Task: inverse folding
């Protein structure tokens, strides 16, 4: 293939993916008036985006669907259609896809299941979908997927309701659709959201590699997160990850560490999980942040949006109760973090700020032992530590925990968190708030999250956040060292 034809092919592929996020026109085939059906959920979501694009609802059973005309088939639509979302039984999919190709659509999302993951017939039907995509260059997403969303473009072809979506510079590429749904449901309560999302399902054509590559070139995406069961073209995946990771953080949860997980992946999307050790080595080589627990995925992605990178390994801990300081000190070394005793000079400067000799100043600092919970003193202490060269990050335990005792403390707790977070950005050092309390148990925590300030709810999360921010910094430094002539 010549360079010119290769460039044309690449541009067509990108245009197809663009249509998945922000098509000028869209048809839902299998749209329905019946509640609690995929055709109804998706149709309701896309109808809300009619201010930005033309929407056509197709189902021969209904003359009107959600107040819009119901079309017998995509062939009956007079206008052009860029994206077709197919929500019908598996046996009807191939003829509908062929109609979509004849109509000139650029991308097709197949929500329907019952293909390679299910039966031998389904495997052959999926092979036919792959052949159609290769021969026509129409991008096919799925089958057995949960659509996509682009909050800024007011497009949502997933089953997650629109009212739960919030924009953010995080892009999510996943081989499991419902994981994206659940993360969406929890977004408003936690402040952990993503602005773009694609569920790849069985990957008859479009793959997680394609979406990571697309996100790498999308200026609105600053951080990429991905749930991966397996990839079929390892060499291309390796090449894309190497290129994209140089520009943007990639946070991955990869299944298959154990045989049971690999087997489950095979039955879910028919993915071959592959050697977990090989993936782990690849991720380490190219600076991909691999996390141990799925529920950490949006939390660590959000940390890269909210925090500066951690340019060293020294952590200062401030606690209201000594026990949390001990637990944090014992856990942070799991991520190669260091809780070193402060130098005599820094201890002396800390001592001058505290009203009582009972408070430990060695690291951790047991602020609660001073006997006075003074936000001004605490703010001065945080600013001092951020300005010190021997401190690369701060973890605090206790902010937000006065509100349940003294409701009038909410104002100054929130103000303290805001000021400390602003100072951390100024100094380029992560400031991590750790508390077991949630929005339900502390009004201060609720308002801190609403201000966009991240809160960690477990010590494991604190450890993973700081370890990840430091790994990213070390990876970028290694790239600089490779090109340096000295």
Result:
């Amino acid at each position: 293939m010549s360079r010119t034809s290769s460039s044309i092919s690449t541009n067509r592929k990108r245009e197809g993916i663009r249509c998945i996020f922000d098509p000028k026109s869209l048809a839902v085939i299998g749209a329905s008036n019946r509640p609690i059906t995929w055709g109804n959920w998706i149709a309701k979501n896309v109808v809300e985006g009619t201010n930005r694009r033309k929407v056509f609802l197709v189902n021969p059973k209904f003359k009107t669907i959600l107040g819009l005309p119901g079309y017998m088939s995509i062939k009956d639509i007079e206008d052009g259609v860029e994206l077709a979302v197919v929500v019908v039984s598996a046996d009807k999919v191939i003829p509908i896809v062929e109609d979509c190709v004849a109509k000139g659509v650029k991308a097709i999302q197949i929500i329907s299941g019952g293909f390679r993951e299910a039966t031998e017939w389904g495997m052959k039907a999926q092979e036919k979908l792959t052949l159609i995509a290769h021969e026509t260059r129409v991008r096919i997403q799925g089958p057995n997927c949960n659509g996509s969303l682009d909050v800024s473009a007011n497009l949502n072809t997933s089953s997650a309701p629109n009212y739960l979506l919030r924009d953010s510079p995080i892009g999510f590429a996943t081989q499991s659709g419902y994981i994206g749904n659940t993360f969406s449901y929890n977004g408003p309560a936690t402040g952990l959201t993503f602005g773009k999302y694609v569920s790849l399902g069985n990957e008859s054509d479009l793959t997680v590699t394609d979406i990571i590559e697309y996100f790498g070139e999308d200026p609105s995406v600053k951080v990429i997160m991905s749930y991966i069961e397996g990839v079929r073209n390892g060499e291309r995946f390796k090449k894309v990850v190497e290129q994209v990771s140089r520009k943007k953080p990639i946070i991955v949860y990869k299944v298959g560490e154990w045989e049971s997980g690999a087997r489950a992946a095979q039955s879910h999307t028919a993915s071959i999980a592959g050697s977990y050790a090989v993936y782990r080595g690849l991720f380490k080589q190219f600076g991909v942040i691999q996390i141990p627990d799925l529920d950490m995925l949006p939390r660590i992605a959000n940390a890269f949006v909210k925090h500066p990178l951690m340019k060293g390994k020294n952590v200062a801990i401030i606690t209201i109760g000594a026990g949390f300081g001990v637990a944090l000190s014992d856990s942070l070394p799991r991520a190669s973090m260091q809780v070193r005793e402060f130098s005599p000079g820094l201890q002396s400067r800390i001592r001058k700020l505290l009203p009582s000799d009972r408070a430990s100043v060695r690291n951790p600092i047991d602020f609660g032992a001073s006997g006075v919970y003074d936000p001004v003193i605490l703010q001065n202490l945080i600013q001092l530590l951020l300005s010190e060269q021997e401190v690369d990050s701060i973890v605090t335990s206790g902010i937000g925990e006065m509100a349940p005792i003294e409701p009038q403390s909410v104002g100054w707790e929130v103000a303290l968190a805001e000021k400390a977070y602003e100072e951390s950005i100024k100094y380029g050092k992560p400031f991590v708030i750790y508390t077991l309390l949630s929005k339900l148990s502390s009004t201060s925590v609720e308002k801190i999250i609403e201000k966009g300030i991240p809160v960690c709810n477990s010590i494991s999360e604190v450890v993973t956040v700081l370890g990840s921010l430091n790994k990213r910094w070390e990876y970028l430094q290694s790239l600089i060292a490779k090109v340096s002539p000295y």
The chain has three domains: 1-143, 145-306, 309-477. The two ends are 41 Å apart (CA to CA).
